Amino acid sequence: MGAAARCRVTGTPSTGPALLRITGGVWGNRAEPPLLSVAVNGRAAGSATASVDVGHCVFPIQSSDSLDIELSLDRTFAVPGDGRALGLMVRGIEVLAAGQLEQPVDADGWFEWEDHEYFPFRWMGLSARVILPGAARARGRFVQLPIASDCPDGEQTLTVASGEDSLAALRLLRGWHIYDVALPAAEPGENASPLWIRLTLNRLAPTEVHPDDPRPLGARIGPLEIHDDRRRHEYVLRFHAESAGVAESNAGGVPGGPAERGYHGIPAEGEGWFSEEFDDNGPFRWMRREGRLRITEEMRQGARYCVVPMFSSFRNLTQEATLVMGASRVGPIPLLKAWNAYSVELPPPTGEDLVLTLQLNKLPPPASHPDDARELGIRVGDLWFHDDPARHERQVVMYRNAVRNQRELQEGATVLASFPLLLGIDLYGKCNIKPACVYCLWDPMKALEGPHVDTPVDDRTLEGYGDFFRSAKQVVNCSFGEPLLHPRLEDVLAFAARNGKVAEISSNGQAFTPRTVRALEGKPIHLYVSLDSATAATYARLRNDRWDEIITGLLFLREARRRGNGWPRLNLVFMPMKANRQDIEMYFRLSKLVDADQVVLRPLLHLEDPGITRERGGYRFDYAEELLGREELEEIFGECGRHARRYGVRLISQFDFGRIEAPVIGEGRDRA
Amino acid sequence: MSMEPTFDRERARQLAEQELGVSREYLCREPWESYYILRRGVLPCCHGSKPIAPMEEWPTAWNSAQAQEIRRHLAQGRLSPYCLESLGCPVTQRYLAEQQRKALIPALSPAARPGWMRVLNRALGGLPARLYRLMAGK
Q: Which of A150, A164, A384, B43 fits a 20 to 30 Å CA distance from A217?
């Protein structure tokens, strides 16, 4: 339109109170958007500053069968090459009957909706308004807002106000998070009036975040949801309170990290190394047949032991390493397959640098890495140092057991003098999901557990397992129950970590609280979170209506993992079924949202004649029908592969369990 | 681009896997490397269908007769009866699928093929026979 325009709208949904929403914006002079004045059927409806780019202007009106609408601007723009006096680009004119609105309505201050992340969102500028319809207000006392800030934690605040009343002042955290605000009480029944809410930021997003986008962007806001669940509201507030507490305790200090502080790195020197790469274990460098590491006093800090993580491609103990430190020599020691941490006693400090030379007896044959012509020996990860003889001894015990175990396996021994490398444990037999997930074999498993269903299992039990625990490198929890509910969770996890174990824990994702997230933070744990859904609707088919807590918890876990140097590792598990087939792409978006390390495809347990049918969330779950055939699974694998590439999310499949693949040499990625 | 014949590359890859110890892998390593002490009982692996001992017998179940039997079969390149009953195990599922495939192949072997199949094969330019050889891994 130019300076003024008129239109007629007929066939409006009803008469009575309504909202006239003009969607459009200016093109050209972004610094001074014009003032838009609107009259309806000859009566002034109001004025509002037009939006830069595309946005809304909303005016309360009285609707009728026919509306003559007049739009006028206080100025127009001249665009080079176009002789017209241009005003507003009008994208749409809507008449929304106030009494029929069910969902929040965007008023001014918003940009267009975008839908390429987990949450659809629109950017707001410094200030924006949204209208909460009366019908929606009548059903809920709270409103949940997914918000993404691009500023460091706490530097951006969002005030939520209704008229002169401040409803909340939100301290925004970087990235997506869930926020929840209590609303003023609404009139009872169907006559609740709409509530105009103003959201105001203290600052815009840094321009470096959107260098090619000249719009004045504040924060990304997802769909607002009105609800009446106080527990949900308080769940969100607890996490934010915890986050503020963590920020205070970290203020002025170095952010927390994994249990080990001090030097972590690969002090490689000389010709024996290739450049740094990155795999699931973290940073590493490929070493040729021989490589030198220069350990300074500053790195070592007088420590007696050095832990050298090494990755061997050999599965048969035939690759050996010798460690030479001046006159001192360790080895040759057989290298275990894949990553292992080797604790080495160093010579006493002399005040000079210590050169540690690693020498290999053999290299993987070139034909095992045909796409990589380099002379590849082993991968070496970040070294670190400690001063604990007991810890060193524990590493030696685990190493010797692993070598013995591998030898016995190669010999086909049936009676073993060695102990398992992986110890499965059963920490907790209770679950917070009641009724159980539709596919869970809860009742038969609890019957099988018999007298042990309430047997306590904790750090004292693990200690009691003696050599079975001492020799294992890994403990895997396989409870039919939710381990994060364990009353001694912190003690158990700390005990396992202190004893050099990597733990594997599966969780239903519905037990994240500030306490459990704190217990997990920075620990050497692979956390498998089984969601099997990416939306509230699908989650309700398989479990219950608490999907909102999942997202909140995972986002705070994300923050804890960042503080903990990426630990615990987060694996999001998806069991493809008929019931959740449609959620696959969203699952990858969700994984990206929460910074998951990978998506894990897991088969639904194959049962002959399961006879399990359940009604849940408006869906009839029939176990036998949910099992997908091979052809459909192959389609799903292909689909997952495409989404994994598109969203940059790593994907692994437990359908391949037990399949022995040749070690993939050269699979390291460049450090991100 | 390498001009090396395909079979030489394939042979080199097989030799490399031998050297790395990949080719000598059993169908499953779990009964040596893992041990599950769970409330429902002691299991030799994460996909075992039933316990090999009650929970309280964990100190001795590691080298029990049943654990030994499972290891013995695997060391001989076979799945034990315990494994074959554990249908939730992907290794077992793959093993059974492979057995079914192999059972199908002899029915189509040259010696078993009826005359009309040979005529049809010639009429289709030998394609069915080539497909058979591909399926049989020849």
A: A164
Q: What is the CA radius of gyration of chain B?
A: 22
Q: What is residue A567's three-state secondary structure?
A: coil
Alpha-carbon distance of A463 to A458, in angstroms, equals 9
* Structure ipTM: 0.83
The pLDDT, as a whole number, for residue A17 is 86
Chain B environment of A600 (Cβ under 8 Å): none
In this structure, what DSSP letter does residue A668 have?
P
Nearest chain B residue to A314 by CA: give it: B20
Q: What is the DSSP letter of A230?
A: H
Contacts of B116 (CB under 8 A, 6+ apart): none
pLDDT-derived band at A166 (thresholds 50, 70, 90) equals very high
The nearest CA of chain A is from the CA of B67 a distance in Å of: 8
Distance CA A248, CA A632 (A): 51
Handedness of CA A498, A422, A279, A316 (dihedral sign): positive
H or E element in which residue A538 lies: helix A536-542
Closest C-alpha among A123, A174, A29 to residue A555? A174
Put simply, the answer to whether A314 touches B21 (Cβ < 8 Å) is: yes
Are the Cβ atoms of B22 and A429 closer than 8 angstroms?
no
pLDDT in tens, A355-382: 999 999 999 999 888 889 999 999 999 9
pTM as predicted: 0.86
Contact A452 B40 (CB under 8 A): yes
Other CB atoms within a 10 A radius of the CB of residue A137 amount to 21
d(CA B43, CA A122): 52
pLDDT for residue A611: 86
A153-158, long-range: CB < 8 A, 24+ apart: A153/A243, A153/A247, A154/A244, A154/A247, A155/A203, A156/A201, A156/A202, A156/A203, A156/A205, A156/A219, A157/A201, A157/A202, A158/A199, A158/A200, A158/A201, A158/A219
The pLDDT tens digits for A459-504 are 999 999 999 999 999 999 999 999 999 999 999 999 999 999 999 9
Averaged pLDDT of chain A: 91
CB-CB under 8 Å, B9 with A478 = no
Distances (CA, A) of A225 to A136, A222, A233, A608: 9, 9, 12, 43
> What are the CA-CA distances from residue B60 to residues A350, A562, B20, B43 (Å)?
50, 43, 34, 12
